[in-house]
Design goal:
9% of the residues lie in helices and 35% in strands. The chain is mainly beta and 198 residues long. Strands 5, 7, 8, 10, 11 and 12 form a 6-stranded mixed sheet that branches. The protein has a 3-stranded antiparallel sheet with strand order 2-1-3, with no helix packed on it. Strands 4-6-9 form a 3-stranded antiparallel sheet, with no helix packed on it. It is elongated.
């Protein structure tokens, strides 16, 4: 509030100064002086032009159109989920191969730029317009699998992430089989002939 009163007082003072008459007088040494006192000896009134003013033109009105409402990429899809493998599934495959299937209804709208993005452990491993995708070279252990449905505008809906466990049979399996094949056993080396006794 104090600042407002100071501003008002300054503006009033400036207006009073601009409205006052200005006089000049010359001293004995020839120096010119200016004053607002008309009673000073030798004072002469001078004409002071009003200060220039500038009135800017009105700014044009900026009309902003409302941003179109974004529709989710899955608009029109009643079903979108990973159907195979099931969550917490255990997969036995010595090559580390896994086939992923996605349930999607109605069919994927590739005409609208829709595509499926497959992710393994958070990293993209492929893009496809098919609801079936094969991954290979997966290491044994616990993995997270997810599928994203992406449209041409980059809008994404991610499916529920599932977890699966990949196992590979070891050559030292006690069953003596690898993927149903028997492991050939090494033949024992022949014994060296014994020297005759004396």
């Amino acid at each position: 509030m104090k600042k407002i009163w100071i501003t008002i007082m300054l503006l009033s003072f400036m207006q009073a100064v601009l409205a006052a008459d200005v006089y000049k007088w010359v001293d004995a040494e020839g120096h010119v002086h200016f004053t607002d006192d008309p009673n000073h000896p030798g004072a002469e009134k001078i004409h002071v032009a009003p200060p220039p003013t500038y009135t800017p033109p009105p700014l044009p009105k900026i009309v902003t159109s409302p941003e179109p409402r974004k529709q989710p990429a899955t608009a029109g899809y009643a079903t979108f989920a990973i159907s195979s493998p099931e969550n917490e599934a255990t997969i036995w495959d010595n090559n580390g191969t896994l086939t992923v299937s996605v349930s999607l209804s109605p069919p994927l709208r590739q005409d609208l730029g829709h595509q499926l993005v497959y992710l393994l452990d958070g990293s993209e491993v492929g893009r496809s317009g098919n609801t079936t995708f094969t991954l290979s070279g997966i290491e044994r252990g616990t993995h997270q699998l997810a599928v994203e449905l992406e449209d041409d505008a980059g809008r994404v809906l991610q499916s529920d992430q599932i977890t699966f466990y990949l196992h590979r049979r070891s050559l030292l399996d006690q069953s003596g089989e690898v993927s149903g094949q028997a492991i050939p056993r090494a033949k024992s080396a022949p014994r060296a002939p014994q020297a005759p006794r004396r």
